[in-house]
Amino acid sequence: MAPKLPPPTLTTEVEEPPDFNLGAPLEAPPLGAHWDGAGVDFRLFSGRAEAVELCLFEDREAVTGPRLPLQRTGDIWHSRAQGLGPGTLYGYRVHGPFAPRDGLLFNASKLLIDPYARAITGEPRADPALFGFTLGKNPCLSFDGRDNADVMPKCVVVDPSFDWQGVERPSIPWSDTVLYEAHVRGMTRLHPEIEPRTRGTFSALAQPPVLEHLKRLGVTSIQLMPIQQSAPEAHLLAQGRRNYWGYSAIGFFAPNARYAQASDGSQVDEFKTLVRELHRHDFEVILDVVYNHTAEGGLAGPIYSFKGIDNPSYYRLRRDLPSRWIDHTGCGNSLDIGSPAVLRLVLDSLRYWVSEMGVDGFRFDLAPAMGRQDGTFRPDATFFQRIAEDPLLAGVKWIAEPWDLGPDGYRLGQFPRPWSEWNDRFRDLTRRAWSGGADGPSISELASRLAGSEDLFGGKGAGPRASINYVISHDGFTLRDWVSYERKHNEANGEQNRDGTDNNLSRNWGEEGPTEDPEVLRLRDRARRNVAATLLLAQGVPMLHHGDEIGRTQGGNNNPYNQDNATSWVDWSRPDRAMMETVRGLVALRKRFPQLRRDRYFQHPGVTPGAEPGRRDAVWLRVDGKEMESSDWQDPQLRSLALMLPPGEPRLKGGRATDETPGTESPGAESPGAESIGALLLAFNIGETDLSLVLPPLELGAWTVLFDSARSDDPLKEKEISTGTDSTPLSILLEHLSVQVLVSRR
After folding, report:
1. How far is CA 159 from CA 1, 71, 84, 88, in A?
2. CA 531 to CA 453: how far, in whole Å?
């Protein structure tokens, strides 16, 4: 409950410069509600409003309270309330014309959320009063004057101070980064070693059982699915559901109160504590952010905030028909990043999460929407330039989901530095390779993805880290479901199984869904090991999805965005320990050998035929031990290849790589304890036939198998193999649909 409100004293002490520049967040006075120990400064942008009232509330259930007029300077409405402090609940009522045909939706009967609110308490409750028009009537021809304060969340004034206890950011190099996508609630809601009252919260994610699991797994960076305050879209409100994933933002500065133990403003400190404790244990925190749209939908959606404050300044509207929203997101609206108000909002929000909340980077949902100027995506868009020029923002990690639903929305490989990008080409290649059948990828494509996708990202000058390699994410089947289902099973979502993709590139290996057949289970487990190996052995930045390492299932649902229940939550009660050890061991291999985490592309990537003998950092081989030739890369029947990664820059003798290292140059940044000697051999058989793998002869030492996905009992058990000679090369079995990793040892 908020503290009892003293009689506030409003002043106009906070003067705004007449030439207030929305496009200069570093120079402009801060928007939002800010407490300084004696009172609160309130500032709200609205260029078209005729009047703005600040509404104060005793508690979140209150529907009435003081209404205090704000002063206007330029497009900023502002005032100072002496005597108010942290815990104060507030909202705004914005007066102006209600003219939907002109894109104006002012309706002072609606309590509105402050776009800059640092905390929000409560969630919208399904009620016709949330809408600015009369439900069932034409939104352009009807007006709903009912007060919505009893069904709307309230904003909370917060105390920004926090004790970081001297804990510093981990600052993990891209070459060492292993991402782990997680949902705060889903990750911990069923964890048996966490107190029930804490499960599903920010605090739970910082508990020892979770931290120990992540440490043992070896990941470095936790990519949290959206944690900014969200709200249900109109169709979910009508169904009594919520957007569990959180891709329906309404508060870009506020940690989602659903993931906190309390929503009185303490959710800010709870999130900061999570960040501090993750940093203390050397984990980075990456936020999945949604700045491309909001939960308000289009004209027929609810009014939560932006629509009622200044609709044309926040959303992309058709110039010829302002009552229609331009929708590049599939969610009913698109925020207009070309608007100075939106550009400042997003940049201010990003700076806040870095400077005040301590996060280490961002993954942008539908990122091309952020680069659209006049509807067209531009790599040199103002938004990208502002990030690159900002000393604070330029120093964190930037990840793009490089597609949206607008015209020419698929922009893989086109984001400027310093952006990395989700690589769906890697995802689809890996799925096709290990689901078997005639639709498998070409060997040249497999090599390109293993080599870091230089064909897609080479022009950026960023190296392999530009590619975020993933096979499974929140959007689609889990890894276990990918080997268990060939059809989606989304009936529980309430959309007659029409939602979610049908292009899963999956295989059930003989039965749809759960089975006790040992042969089906054997094949499924091998396919999962193949996927994990491809992901963690490839150049680029790997991303795992939470629970895949312990066999999480969603029962075949590939779009559980509205399933805040056991369908989506990680079940810790029956972990697949064998898969967990496989993933852990592969991550450990990646950390052990710098050849697997280069910060530069190979001199001769897999799609290039053999080069002149001399120094090389990679050699592509056929399984018969011969170097790949031009005709091999073009052979559609070839279903196998091997990649030789010498330690450093090797000498080649007779066209074969040796484990001699003439220089000290490393192919990538070494971590403490990384092996500095030993060539690696990565062998891939994506065909249905067993093959003999001829091992390159070594001048000294022998080959040791470090990983074999065909071994179901212990794929990471090391096995030394005596070396062969030039005249009698040694060969070993490379089973169908399998991966092997070998290292040379003296």
Report:
1. 16, 24, 12, 11
2. 17
Lowest mean pLDDT among 51-65, 305-319, 641-655: 641-655
DSSP class of residue 565 equals: S
Report phi then psi at 594, rounded to 5.
Answer: -65, -20
- Please state, in angstroms and rounded to a whole number, the distance separating the CA atoms of residues 56 and 609: 71
Tokens 């590619």, located at residue: 467
Residue 691: both structure tokens together: 């093959």
- Measured CA to CA, the distance from residue 337 to residue 346 in angstroms comes to 8
- Residue 70 contacts residue 77 (beta carbons within 8 Å): yes
Q: Single out the catalytic residue among 365, 525, 617, 659.
A: 365
Q: Is 365 a catalytic residue?
A: yes
What are the b/e assignments for 54-89, b being 16+ CB within 10 Å? bbbbbebebeebbebebbbbebbbbbbbeebbbbbb
- The residues, ordered by sequence, that sit 6+ positions from 151 with a Cβ below 8 Å of its Cβ are 124, 125, 126, 127, 129, 130
Strand bridging mode 719-721 / 76-82: unpaired
36 Cβ contact list (under 8 Å, min separation 6): none
Active-site pick, 123, 277, 327, 401: 401
| Residue 179, burial from CB neighbour count under 10 angstroms (0-12, 13-18, 19+) | buried
pLDDT at site 617: 87
- Give the tens place of pLDDT for each residue, 481-493: 999 999 999 999 9
**Average pLDDT score over residue span 668-688:** 71
Q: Sign (positive/negative) of CA torsion 58, 61, 67, 73?
A: positive
- Rounded to whole angstroms, how far apart are CA atoms 738 and 529? 9
pTM of the model: 0.92
Write the pLDDT tens digit of every residue in 16-44: 443 344 444 445 689 999 999 999 999 99
Q: For 459-564, list the strands marked E by DSSP.
A: 467-469, 541-545
Taking the C-alpha atoms of residue 71 and residue 14, their distance in angstroms, rounded to an integer, is 10
CA distance 118 to 253: 5
E strands, 672-737, are 680-685, 691-694, 702-708, 719-721, 731-734
Amino acid making up residue 650: P
For 311, list phi and psi in degrees, rounded to 5. Answer: -50, -50
Give the mean pLDDT of the chain: 90
Tell me the residue length of the chain.
746
How far apart CA 23 and CA 246 sit, in angstroms, is 28
Q: Which residues pair with 704 in a beta bridge?
A: 720, 743
Residue 459: CA atoms inside 13 Å, Cβ hemisphere, count? 8
- Short-list 402, 398, 386, CA closest to 347: 386
CA 314 to each of CA 333, 373, 548: distance values in angstroms, whole numbers, following the listed order: 10, 14, 38
Rounded to whole angstroms, the Cα distance separating 522 from 501 reads 27
CB atoms under 10 Å from CB of 254, counted, come to 30
Cβ partners under 8 Å of residue 498, min gap 6: none
CA dist list (Å): 189 to 168, 273, 550, 559, 738:
29, 19, 16, 19, 35
**Nearest-angstrom CA–CA distance, 669 and 334:** 41
Instruction: Find out whether the peptide bond into 30 is cis, omega within 30 degrees of 0.
Output: no
Would you state the pLDDT for residue 604? Answer: 54
358-405: pLDDT as tens digits? 999 999 999 999 999 888 999 999 999 999 999 999 999 999 999 999
Rounded CA-CA distance 102/137 in Å is 18
Contact between residue 286 and residue 359 where contact means Cβ atoms under 8 Å apart? yes
State CA 291 to chain mean position distance. Answer: 13
**Residue 401 designated active-site:** yes
pLDDT at 182 over 80: yes
